Predict the structure of Dihydrofolate reductase.
Amino acid sequence: MLTLIWAEDQHHLIGRNGQLPWHLPADARYFRQRTTGNAVIMGKRTFESLGKPLPNRKNLVLSSTLSEQPGILLFPILAELANWITHHPDDQLFVIGGVRLYKELMPMADRLLVTKIDATFDGDTYMPAVNLDDWTLQSTEKHAADDKNRWPYAFLTYVRRPHA
């Protein structure tokens, strides 16, 4: 199953200077719980922003300029990555960024996991538009701000609608 996972503010902002524009521990925990033990798929800039492969996950990186290194599976072109995804239909695969990969792999995705933060931030990177006609909202889990999480947020799960 291919899942796109991301957090965004009220205006679909997802990043600032290659980092998250917020600190939301509940979202970090949610991300870790969902992706640990599975494969995470990312572009070069996302990988570089992390600084190292994410532990306890298979790290797949799309880049034509990175060199092979321990802890990552490197794909120089999107077609090779898409082929790998197609040949692993029973694996739990999570696209974690960046914008180009979200856009390119959206048509292959089965599920979207979105953390909506009820606030606005300054930044420079926005999530590509999602055509909600293609998706059914399966669940919403709302949370109020608390002493650890400064802003209200919700975890939304969308599943792809069957084609008619």
